[in-house]
Amino acid sequence: MSSAHVMILAGEASGDAHAAEFVEQLKHERPDIRISGMGGRAMSRAGVDVFFDSSIIAVVGLIEVIRHWGDIRRAMAIVRERLEQTRPDLLVLVDYPEFNLKMARRARELDIRVLFYISPQVWAWRPKRIHKIGRLIDHMAVIFKFEQAFYEDAGIPVTFVGHPLVDKVQSGEDPAALRARLAIGSADRVIGLFPGSRQSEISRLLPLMFETARLLQKRDPGTRFLLPVASTLDYRDLEQRCADSGLDIRLSGDDIYTTIVCCDAIASCSGTVTLEIALLGVPMCIVYRMSGLSYLIMSRLITIPRIGLANIVAGKPVVRELLQDDANAENLSRELTALIDDREYRRQIIDGLARVRENLGVGGGARNMAQLVVSLID
């Protein structure tokens, strides 16, 4: 009997990382399993036969998708061809719903079982999608406890596997050592600039963060800035952009969690990174910008009052969100200053982030996900 074949489709950096984590657990559970897929460096390092580099199509926003539509269509054609040729025992879709649900439809036509991992945000916008999703998949694996009820109420098989970050997020190095390596003093105030892991995010948020850094450095010349470089980005390109800005910004390709705890406050893009920052208890402000047309459309579709995952998981506004026109250098610099200098405000933010940690559960997410995969292929 041949070994089981699982195909995994992850469309961006966070999905690539989460897939890699459960793949490592899956290989421990079933060493003979064959795993192929669309993904990035993390999945490749975990032993996945990556047949399409997902960083090419890791974009967000309607206008951005249109600009990259040629690459996205090519990725779809390649995935469909692989599904038809290899007929995996299970197709695991990791986030990236607009793309992945189209692939689920083709898998359905080929009678391939489908497991969706990291639910589309049906609780945030277009809630009626849940019925379409239920027709295209066999099982949903959710990472937030509150999501389970949405699928149970719709009669869709669902398992709460837990959030993989709970086990993963911890500093791998003494922050003082990283500060010393970056020539940052132990008493220096350090502000993290976290524009994201996608080129589209860099284009929209990095100029804002540069402008903010100029204001902050003018008010306090001793302020230091730290910018992490995701594996999906070109380190030299970002290094050149920082040099051209004329600002003293230290780049870090080191462990992201050590980079986070080196900071006294962080200006962050929206996304999974806000949960990572929350788990490490560092005060932050969330900034979000997209094209005007994309924002106009999205703002009419979203049904919840907050867009930052840290605030959504907490169930209340814990950190400030600066969106579109409000995401300007004056507002952002004022908020970052308050996060460091206003002791009472800082304490309130840190207490709120502790609530996020409590609501993410006790861990074991990657292991639970691997066991769910095994149960479905068996």
Q: Can you give keywords for this protein?
A:
18 helices; seven-stranded parallel beta sheet; 378 residues; alpha/beta; Rossmann fold; single chain; six-stranded parallel beta sheet
Compile the SSE list and pairings:
Blueprint: E1 5-10, H1 13-29, E2 34-39, H2 41-45, E3 49-53, H3 62-67, H4 69-86, E4 90-94, H5 97-109, E5 113-117, H6 129-136, E6 139-142, H7 148-153, E7 158-160, H8 165-168, H9 175-181, E8 190-194, H10 199-219, E9 224-228, H11 235-245, E10 249-252, H12 256-261, E11 265-269, H13 273-279, E12 284-288, H14 292-301, H15 309-314, E13 321-323, H16 329-341, H17 343-359, H18 365-377
Parallel strand pairs: 1-2, 1-4, 2-3, 4-5, 5-6, 6-7, 8-9, 8-11, 9-10, 11-12, 12-13
From the helix content, strand content and strand pairing, which structural class follows?
Answer: alpha/beta
Portion of residues in beta strands equals 15-25%
Mean pLDDT: 90
Oligomer: single chain
What can you tell me about this protein's structure?
By secondary structure, the protein is an alpha/beta fold. It folds into two domains: 5-163 and 362-377, Rossmann fold; 175-359, Rossmann fold, CATH 3.40.50. Helices cover 50% and strands 16% of the residues. The protein contains 18 helices and 13 strands. It has helices at residues 13-29, 41-45, 62-67, 69-86, 97-109, 129-136, 148-153, 165-168, 175-181, 199-219, 235-245, 256-261, 273-279, 292-301, 309-314, 329-341, 343-359, 365-377, and strands spanning 5-10, 34-39, 49-53, 90-94, 113-117, 139-142, 158-160, 190-194, 224-228, 249-252, 265-269, 284-288, 321-323. The strands form two sheets. A seven-stranded parallel beta sheet has the order 3-2-1-4-5-6-7, with helices on both faces. A six-stranded parallel beta sheet has the order 10-9-8-11-12-13, with helices on both faces. Helix 11 links the parallel strand 9 (224-228) and strand 10 (249-252). Helix 4 packs parallel to helix 5 (97-109) and helix 10 (199-219) packs across helix 16. The two termini are 13 Å apart. The model has no long low-confidence stretch (mean pLDDT 90).
